[in-house]
Amino acid sequence: MIVVIKSNASPEKRTQLIKWLKSMGLGVHESAGEFQTVLGLIGDTSRVDMDLIESLDIVDSVKRVSETFKCVNRKFHPEDTVVSVGDLKIGGGNFVLIAGPCSVESETQIVEIAKAVKASGASLLRGGAFKPRTSPYDFQGLKGEGLELLKVARQETGLPIVTEIMNLKDLPLFEDIDVLQVGARNMQNFDLLKELGTLHKPILLKRGLANTLKELLMSAEYIMASGNEQVILCERGIRTYSDYLRNTLDLAAVPMLHELSHLPVIVDPSHATGIARMVPPMSLAAAACGADGLIIEVHNDPAHALCDGAQSLTPAAFDALAKKVDSVRKAVS
Amino acid sequence: MIVVIKSNASPEKRTQLIKWLKSMGLGVHESAGEFQTVLGLIGDTSRVDMDLIESLDIVDSVKRVSETFKCVNRKFHPEDTVVSVGDLKIGGGNFVLIAGPCSVESETQIVEIAKAVKASGASLLRGGAFKPRTSPYDFQGLKGEGLELLKVARQETGLPIVTEIMNLKDLPLFEDIDVLQVGARNMQNFDLLKELGTLHKPILLKRGLANTLKELLMSAEYIMASGNEQVILCERGIRTYSDYLRNTLDLAAVPMLHELSHLPVIVDPSHATGIARMVPPMSLAAAACGADGLIIEVHNDPAHALCDGAQSLTPAAFDALAKKVDSVRKAVS
Amino acid sequence: MIVVIKSNASPEKRTQLIKWLKSMGLGVHESAGEFQTVLGLIGDTSRVDMDLIESLDIVDSVKRVSETFKCVNRKFHPEDTVVSVGDLKIGGGNFVLIAGPCSVESETQIVEIAKAVKASGASLLRGGAFKPRTSPYDFQGLKGEGLELLKVARQETGLPIVTEIMNLKDLPLFEDIDVLQVGARNMQNFDLLKELGTLHKPILLKRGLANTLKELLMSAEYIMASGNEQVILCERGIRTYSDYLRNTLDLAAVPMLHELSHLPVIVDPSHATGIARMVPPMSLAAAACGADGLIIEVHNDPAHALCDGAQSLTPAAFDALAKKVDSVRKAVS
Amino acid sequence: MIVVIKSNASPEKRTQLIKWLKSMGLGVHESAGEFQTVLGLIGDTSRVDMDLIESLDIVDSVKRVSETFKCVNRKFHPEDTVVSVGDLKIGGGNFVLIAGPCSVESETQIVEIAKAVKASGASLLRGGAFKPRTSPYDFQGLKGEGLELLKVARQETGLPIVTEIMNLKDLPLFEDIDVLQVGARNMQNFDLLKELGTLHKPILLKRGLANTLKELLMSAEYIMASGNEQVILCERGIRTYSDYLRNTLDLAAVPMLHELSHLPVIVDPSHATGIARMVPPMSLAAAACGADGLIIEVHNDPAHALCDGAQSLTPAAFDALAKKVDSVRKAVS
C-alpha cells in the first residue's frame, strides 16, 4: 500500500502517522519528493482501512498495490477453471448453451421447451421457480412445485438444470438441483454466498444491477473462500441512462474478467436487452468476444408467458441462433 | 394502460391484439389518429405484462397510467405517516437525529458513544452488529454479541436502537431491537422484505446502490402489503461516475419521495459521501430540503474504528453539527 | 400526445387546461376512466412543451406518441442509407475498416501507418490533427500541419481520410478532407452540426460521453435537417461506474440504432476500452452484431505515441484482427 | 508518479522499462517488495502517458501523485477567489442570487421579470438568447435580438446580465455582456474555453451532463491558463438513471469543489430538477451546504414560456424563496 503525504504536512503529524502505521505491524518505507512524501507500507495491509487513511488531513491519497481478491485471481491460478456438471464441462474452451423459460409454468410447458432447446443444442435447462420481482403484485414463481417440474423436464431430456435460489432457508429444496443461480439482486447477499460456498455444486453468479467487476469478483471470492471452487460468472447488463434498452450489456467485461480471473464467464443477452429481437445479435457478439456460454430465455408461447415474454425467443428462433453462434465460435477460434 | 399501435400495422394484426387483450378481461377503447391508433385498456391491468405488449411488432409504445404502488402512495393516503418508536415520533413534522458508530466494537465504545450522542440531541442509537462487507476478509461485525452490547447501551441511556438485519434466519436475535434496518444491498431481497412486513416494529429501508425512487417505493410496498405500515425511507447516496466522493447523495429524492409517498424520509450523509468532513454540510442541506431525520456515524476514536472510520464524526463534531441542524430547521419551518 | 389527468382534479381546472390546449391549435379527445381522465391531443404537437404540461398540478403524466426525429427515422425511410466516399460505400451491407493513429505526428509516421493498414484491408485512414484533450497541458495536435500530412498519406496510398473538426472557424482548412468527424465532446455542439449540414461530404458523428440513442439521433437530425444526408453514426463507449475499462461499450446500440434509423453505424473499440488488448475481442463482437464498420487506432510505435498509445494496435496486430473480422462477418451473413 | 510492476515480470523487461522511463528525462526510484516492485518517477511527469504505461504487460498499475490542475487548485492558492461584476462580488463569503427566464422572449417580458427579481433580492439577471436545444425543431432563442433586450432590462434595473455563449463566432455580439455563461454541453468545447480565457470578464462555467469534478476543474483550468482568473463554477445536476427527476443534483460537489479549488461555486436547481416545485427545497439545501450563489429560472407566465416553463418559478414564488434562502444562510453562518 502506498500513502502519499501532502507537501504542507507538518513533520510532527507525519511522524505521528508513521508511528501509528508501524503500530499496526507494518513496515514503512519513506521516500521524500519535491511536492510529496510517499510512504510504502510493507506487510499484511489487507486489514488496513484505506478510506480512513485517505481521510486524514495530511494525506493526499492512498493506493493499494496488492490485490484484494485471491482465490478468483488469475495471478495465483493461471489456468482456466473448468466447471463440471456431470459430464458437461464449462470454461477452458468448453462452450455451453443454457436455455429455457423465464418462469416454469406447467409440466407441459417446461418439458416441451426442454425438448426443443435440447434438440437445438442446449446442454443445460434454465427456468425460474423462485422469481424476484420488483412489485409484490407480480407473479412470484411456482416455487417448490416449479423445482419439481424442472426435475421432470430433466428426467425427460437428460438436461441438467439451473435455477435461482433467493433465500438460504429454501436451500433444502435445492438439494437435487444441478446448478444454483444467484440473481443480480442477490449478488451482495453475503450470507447466501457464504452458505453456497459450503456446497459441492456449481454456482452461477450474476453481476448485480450496478456492480463493478471488482465487486463481482469479490462476491465470487466469498463463495470460493468458503470452499466451493465451482463458480460461473455471468454478465447480464448494467444499469445506465439507456433509453431504448432495459440495461446496457457490458460485453467488454467478458475479456476483462477472463484477464482478471480464471473462472468461466457466460452472458445473458435476454435480461440485458429485454427485447427478444436484440437477443440474436448480442448472442453472436458475446460468442465473438470469447464468452464461455450463453443463457437465453426461450418460451414456446412468448405472448402468454407469465413473465418476461418480451425477451423470450421462440424455439425456432433459438434453433436458428444456435447454428449461427456455432459459426461465429468457429470463426474466432 | 395505453397502447400505441404503429400506423403501418395491418388491420388483421390490430384486431388480433384487441381480441387478445379482451381475452384477459380488459375493456379496450380504440381511438384512431393520423399516424397512430391509441388503445385505452380499462380494468385491472396490474397483471398485464407491459414489456411483452411493447415488444410486439405492431406496437409502438405502451404507457401505464395507473400507479403500480398502492399502500405507499400519497394519492390514496394524503396525510404524512408518523412512525412511532416508543414515545419517539418520526415524520409528519417530527425530526429525528440517529447517531452511533458504524460497527459495535465493545461495551465501553458503544456506551460511551451512546451517552455522547444523547447529550448532543440524538434520540436513536445506531450501530452495526451484522456488517455487509464487499470483501470476505473484512471485519463482519460482532453479530449476536453486538446486539447484546447495543441493548446495554440502550439500558444505560434510554435511547432506542436501530441496527441492520442481513438475513431472515437471524430474525429471532432481533426480537428486542427497536428499529430494524434493511441495508442498501438488501433493498431488493424480497423474501426478507415480506417477512419484515409481518412484524410490528418500524423498518428503516435504505435505497439500494443504484435503485430508482420507484423501486425503493416498490420495496416499501412489499413491507406494507404484508401488513407492516411502519416504514422509514432512507436516501444514502447512489452510484454514479463520481470521482472524489464515494456515492452521489441524491437530495432531491427527499422532496420527491415526500410528494409520491406519505412515508417519512431520512438521509444518511455518512455513507453517501464517505468523508467525515463532508457530513456536516450535507446534513445541513438535508435538513434544509425537508428530511425527517438524519442517520450519522459517530465514533469516539475514528482513527481506530474497525470500519468506515473515514466517514465518522467525533462526538464534538456531532455536537456542533446538531446545533446547526437545529438552526437550519428553524430557518426553513 | 397523451395527457393523463389526476382523478382528484377539479372540473374547472380540467376545463381550463383543455381550453388552453385548444388555444394552441390542437384537437383534444377526452376519455374518462375510473381513476384518470386521458386526453388525446391531435395536430402538430411538436411545439408543445411536454415538461410544462407534466408539471401542472392536475396532470399525472404526459406521453408523446409521435417521433421527434424525422429525417433519420427508419419509419419514413425504410431502406438503409449508403454513404459514399468516392468509390467507397458504407452501410447497406458495405462494411468498412477505418484505421490509423490517434494523432498525426510526422510524415514518416502517418505514411508508414497508412501503407500498413491499407495492406491489411483498411479502406479509410483516420488520424487526429485537432485533438480535444481534457487538460490544457496535453498535446493538442499538429492542427493545420497535421491535415497536410494526412493529405500526403492519402496521395501515397489512395486511402480517403477522416479526421476530427472541433471548431467552425477551422472549416476552411477541411475543404479537401474526405470525411469530417464530430467528436464525442461536440455531439451537442449544435452550431457546428448545423454548419456541417450545409456541406456535401460525409460526417462521422460520434455518440457523446453520456448521451442516449435518442440524443445521438437528434444530433444527426440537426445535420440532416440542414440538408446533408451523408451521416455515419459511431458508438464509442459511454460513461458508467466501470472500474477496469475506460468506458462501457454499448454494443446493443448497434442493432437498436439500425432498427430506429436507416443510417450506417460503426464502432470505435479503441476509445471505448482504452486498452489495446481489448480491441480485438470487441472488434469481433461489433462485427458479429451487425456494425457497418470499425474505426481502430493503429500506431507503428505505440510506446512512443504522443497520445493514447495504450489503446493503439501495432500494424501486425491490426493485420491479424482484420482477417478475423472478415471471418466473423462471413459467419453471421 | 508511481508505477507498480508485476511480480512475474522478467528482469529484462523491467530493466528495459526503467531505461525507457529514464530516456524521458525522469529519475526512477526502485523499491522491491514481495509481490511487486514499485517505481517512483521523479521529475516532470506531466507529459508521461499514464494509460500507456498502465497498458504494458509487466505493469500492474500506475498512480499520478501530483495534481494535474494548477491554476484552479486551492493547494497553490489557499484564499477564496472573489469574482467581481462591477461593484458586485461573488465568492469568499459573498452570496449572489441570479434569476431570470430560461429564454428572453420580448422586451416586456424581460424587463418585467428583471424588475420583479431585483425587488426580491436578485443581483444578476439571467436570460437565454442563444439556446442549445436537443431538437433542431425547438425554439433556438432570439439570438442577437435577445442580447439587445437583455441590455434594455439592465438599463431599466441596473442588474448586470449573464447569458450563454454557444459559439466563438458570436463573441463580438457579447462585448457588452457582463458575465458569459458556458453551458453544460459546451463544458469541453476547448477552443471556446481557450478564447474565453483571453477575455477580461467573468465566465460562469456549468458542469457537463456527465462530467466528473476533475473534468470540470480541468475545463476551468483551460480558461485560467489562458489568463482569465474570473471563473465561477456551477453545479446543475448530472445524468443518472433517475426516474422522477430530470437530473441528479450533486450537492456534495459544492463542499468538495470548495476543498479542491478557490473558485466560487453556485448551483442551478432549475435545470437540475426540471420541476418548479422542487426548486425551493433544493435552493435551500444548496444555501445550507455553502454554495456561493444560486441561478434560478423565473418567468412571469410559466404556462406560456417558450422553453422550460415547467421548471420556472413565478416572481411571487421567487420572492418567498429569496427570504427563506436568506434565513438559511444566516442559520449556517
Written description of the protein model:
The structure is a homotetramer of 333-residue chains. The first copy, chain A, is of the alpha/beta class. Helix content of chain A is 32%, strand content 18%. Chain A contains ten helices and 14 strands. Chain A has helices at residues 11-23, 50-55, 107-119, 144-157, 190-196, 213-225, 253-260, 269-273, 279-288, 315-332; strands at 2-5, 27-32, 37-42, 59-63, 83-85, 88-90, 96-100, 124-126, 161-164, 179-182, 203-206, 231-235, 265-267, 293-297. In chain A, the strands form three sheets. In chain A, strands 7-8-9-10-11-12-13-14 form an eight-stranded parallel barrel, surrounded by five helices. In chain A, α9 packs parallel to α10. The longest helix of chain A has 18 residues, at 315-332. Chain A is elongated, with a radius of gyration of 23 Å. The model of chain A has no long low-confidence stretch (mean pLDDT 91). At the C-D interface, α2, α5 and α6 of C face α2, α5 and α6 of D.
Report the sheet-strand fraction of chain A. Answer: 15-25%
- Chain oligomer state: homotetramer
Structural class of chain A: alpha/beta
Determine the N-to-C terminus distance of chain A.
40 Å
The greatest inter-chain interface is formed by: C-D, 54 and 55 residues
Strand arrangement in the largest pleated sheet of chain A? 7-8-9-10-11-12-13-14
**Major sheet attributes of chain A:** 8 strands, parallel, barrel
Radius of gyration of chain A: 23 Å
General shape of chain A:
elongated
Estimate the mean pLDDT confidence of chain A: 91
